[in-house]
Each structure stands twice: as C-alpha cells, then as structure tokens.
Amino acid sequence: MQNVRQVASEAFCRLGLKPKHTGYEELTDLDAAPWPMNSLQPQWYHTLQVRRIRAQRTRSNSDPLQGKEFTQGLQWQKKGLPFGTASSYLNLEKLGEGSYATIYKGISRINRQLVALKVISMKTEEGVPFTAIREASLLKGLKHANIVLLHDIIQTRETLTFVFEYVHTDLSQYMSQHPGGLHPHNVKLFMFQLLRGLAYIHRQHILHRDLKPQNLLISYLGELKLADFGLARAKSIPSQTYSAEVVTLWYRPPDVLLGATDYSCDLDIWGAGCIFIEMLQGRPAFAGVSDIVEQLQKIWAVLGIPTEDTWPGVSELPNYKPDWFKPCEPQQFGITWDRLGRVPGAEDLATRMLKCCPRDRISAGNALHHDFFSTLPPQLYQLPDARSVFTVPGVTLEPEICDLFISGQRGLHLGRHGKRW
Question: Which of 53, 223, 359, 370 has the most C-beta neighbours closer than 10 Å?
Fold first, then answer.
C-alpha cells in the first residue's frame, strides 16, 4: 500500500500539483460559517464573478448581485491560506454523483471564488485512479476559454479532490429547460465554441473521447466549456491501438461501434455533429436503446449501410456484420431532421461532420470556417485562446422561445439581476 501511495505521490509531483498527505479536513464544515446559509443561495441562475489570482485569463461568470450582499458575509475569508489543502475550501451543496466521483459546489476561502469540487474516493487496495492522474496531467496544460479551468488539487488518504472553476449548468440541462430545439443563433454560438475548443485540444494532439451534452458546461453568459477529461487521451503517446469502449453510446461513431481502435480526431467530430443536430432538433440524433447493434441500425437508417465502395476497409472491422441489419438507403439530413433545412448551412455542416468513413469527416478547424458561421463577427477568428467569444462587441445569446413566453406571461422585465438566456 505504501508503494502505491508513493507512486501516486511521485506522479503528482511530476505534474507540479503538490498534493497534500496531511490529515483530511471535512469540506462540509458549514456550521462554523458566521452567516446564515440562505445568504449564499441566490436565484438558481446566478453565479458570482470568478477571478483567478495566479494567472491572467478573462473570467466567464458575471456577477448579477454585484458582490454586495455576498461580500458582507465573507468574514471567514482568510488571507494566506495555501492552495492544495482541504481547509481552503467550503462545501455548499452536492451537485451530482458519477461512477467514480461526486461533484460539489463550493467556495474558496482564499479568494472568494465559487468552485466545483470533484471528489474522487480512493479505494485502499487501488490507490489513485489512473483516469484521475490522466485528467490532471492533461488539464494542467490546457489554457483555453472553452476548456474548463483546473484551479487546484487536494490529495488526502481517502480522497482526491479536483477544484475547478464553477460553471452553473451544462448543455443537457440547458436543452431540457428549452425543449423543442434551441434558437438557431444560440446553436451557432454554442457550436462555434465547441469546435473552437476541439480545434485547440486537437492541435495539442489530445482526443476528448467522451463528448456529450452533460460534459459541455454553459456559463451565465453562454460560454461553452469542454469538461470531464477522464477518458481523454494524448494522441502523441505511442500506442498502436486505443480502447473501443469510449464515448457514450448515442454519441459513439460507427467506426468505434464496429470495433475500430485506431481512431483519431474524427472520433470527437462525430460526437460534435450529433450534439449539433440535438441542439437544433430538440432530440438526440441517434437515440439507441439497448446495445451496439441497435445503435448501428439507427445510424444506418439515415446514412445507409456502408460498403467497401463507400468506406474502404470497413469489412475488416471486428463487428462488421451487414447481414445483421435491415437494408437501408441513405436519407437526406434535411428530411430526417427538418430543422436543419430551415437554417442556412446547417444541413451541409452536419453532413460533413457525420460521415461513416472517419477519414471523410471535416476537421474542427475547417468546420469553424464553414458558411454556417458566416454571420458571426470576423473578430472571433482573431481571439487569443484564453479570450471568450463574448468579449467581442455584439456577441450575445438570443432569448429562447420558452423564456420569451414565460416572461410575457408573468410580465417580467429582465434587468441587471436577470439571466442572459
């Protein structure tokens, strides 16, 4: 066991993350806070301005409360508290739980930032999960406005905690709050940011490998950020093959479903194309139910069953069994998903992203220059990596249809305390 801990410690030291091995202090120690808890519960769509004090970067979350009420209750803030210790953060509420981690909303006692605490339990016999080490090593080198920012890491005997910038919702929740498909302009902004983030990590030779709406965070302003790099992989690491057990089923490309293990950036492009259609149409593009065979049938129903003529080498893939499927002819995307045909350029972009043959899919960098984005300001293409698209004058989200309806029904007038979307 000591050897496991030593190996983990050396791994994190090589990353420059300085994990702590001191006794664990509970992150849930709220009783000692000298203010009523309801003073920390603004309306659900409010976030507080985040300013990272150790590196210059345009922050994402605006401050609708202007910091007035909140700062009055922060007498517990302590200057000089170090990064890397549990006592530097307070847990406010549980946000969700995954297969190997629990996410909490928290606050830093160092600089009053709202943060997201990803707490990973370390099993005694296994030590630090390898996926956590990989996620930390990748995120440490990624600095981009459309990539979630890793602030800090806390390691104790029982847990490993990642401290991320706090972003209050994700694309899945956003779409559930606005059913029936999103405003085309907002889809354009979300999609531009998604491709911008993908182009950045692909230039770094990194594959995300788990694109889905739940892993795309949406800030108060509408900034989209790639998150959850637990399955991400550095393409530069020498490897003949990769795992085929990646990407949630609905967003997994046909080559991986067929057992391919030599994929590249085209893996992420397929997932992004599925998300693109889901944002416009209001439902998943290929919502399989039970297994890989059914998922492939959903795809073949639109794209047609591939052959050696349309996809050289497909017959050599392990799961290629054409006799398992009903005969299918390719369909026009605009007929299958009618909202694509109503937005100029949308159908063509989706068609270029969702190609059965992975080599035929458009790259993220080229997709950014597609005509679908021609109405966006040209200044977006000159932004530094760390600058948000919302720093460009005139770039803002449009109100979604259901927001306009609710506002009209209730006679609401959104002012400086209202949400942007």
Answer: 223
